[in-house]
Amino acid sequence: MTTTTTDGPTAAAGQVTVLGLGDMGSAIARTLVDRGYRTTVWNRTASKSAPLVDAGATAAATAAEAVAASPLVVVCLLDSTAVDEVLGSVDAAIAGKVLVNLTSGSPSQARANERWARERGAEYLDGKIMRDPPYVGTPNIMFPFSGSRSAFEAHESTLQVLGSIAYHGEDAGLAAVEFMAQVAVAYELLIGFLHALRLVQAEGVDVAEFAERIAGSVVAYPPLLLSIGKAVKSGECPPDLGSLNVQAALMDDMISHRESIGVEAMRMRQVKELMDDRIAGGHGEQGFSSLFELLAKRR
User: Fold this and answer.
1) Is 145 helix (H, G, I), strand (E, B) or coil?
2) What CATH architecture is 206-298?
3) Among 131, 129, 183, 134, CA closest to 159
4) Which residues contact 46 (CB under 8 A, 6 or more apart)?
5) Cα separation, 13 vs 59, whole angstroms
6) Taking residues 12-37, what's their average pLDDT?
7) Could you tell me where in the chain the CATH 1.10.1040.10 domains are found?
8) Cα–Cα 20 to 30 A to 47, which of 2, 98, 148, 217?
9) What pLDDT shows up at residue 13?
């Protein structure tokens, strides 16, 4: 289930509390105030509330007081340790509320927070934030959510105010799964890109010009990603990038070239080992996607 923001403010909207006024929490609270929501804010450092109060928010003296002020409570803190501390201070005040935690954290932490809320008579939604504070309130920021379906449906119009939203299911950990997987792909891509820049720079190639060419090449990746996803799900792995027999030969060249100019080749060696194992198992005609089967065996 995916929805996006609508243009214009929401007049005479409901009441929302925001706990945590770092850059992201402040952007969330400011967006809610600007869209007409009666917004109560709290932060451990009380002075951070001042700009929001000037904009129309109400500052609470304690987290528990802030929670009591609204049926919908949004938490946006530095980490899960901070979430545990703040929730411990509100405890019984959360009864009857909908708790939306937008703090980064693991799926297991989200499930533990859901249990904590349920035991105290509250509904829980776990959410993650996929972009930076300046994009809050626009369609250019994504908020995946999971947890209580009834809470999501009841407050969907409010959540839409923050950006593009998607509901991933009643398992509270699913939003964190989505977030961590997407961020992991980005980091794997970017660290590989930095190693590639070292490689081309060592060979005297202009790294900025190379980056421009790569930026033009990545448009070819979405169809490949889709085909690999389908192959992994079905277990049928056609030669997506060519057969592993052909790819393995290329990997030898990739590794020797990198090592000859002092560029890190660890990841390439790992890929080559997986390819060799798959080929030895009689699957040399399959594609890159077939390496997925070996990953669980190498934990």
Assistant:
1) strand
2) Orthogonal Bundle (1.10)
3) 129
4) 59, 61
5) 18
6) 93
7) 206-298
8) 98
9) 54
Report d(CA 150, CA 292) in Å as an integer: 36
Residue ranges, CATH 3.40.50.720, the chain: 2-177
pLDDT digits (tens, 9 = 90+) for 76-127: 999 999 999 999 999 999 999 999 999 999 999 999 999 999 999 999 999 9
3-state secondary structure string across 66-126: HHHCCCEEEECCCCHHHHHHHHHHHHHHHCCCEEEECCCCCHHHHHHHHHHHHHCCCEEEE
Write down how long the chain is: 299
pLDDT tens readout for residues 255-282: 999 999 999 999 999 999 999 999 999 9
Mean pLDDT of 49-69: 97
Q: What is the DSSP track for 228-268?
A: HHHHHHHS----BTB-HHHHHHHHHHHHHHHHHTT---HHH
CB 43 within 8 A of CB 68: no
What tens digit of pLDDT does each residue of 141-177 get?
999 999 999 999 999 999 999 999 999 999 999 999 9
Using CA atoms, how far apart are residues 247 and 285, in angstroms rounded to an integer? Answer: 10
| Residue 172 DSSP class | T
Give me the CATH topology for the region 2-177: Rossmann fold (3.40.50)
Model confidence, pTM: 0.87
Decide if 272 contacts 255 (C-beta within 8 A): yes
> Terminus-to-terminus CA distance in the chain, angstroms?
33
Partners of 15 in the beta sheet?
Answer: 38
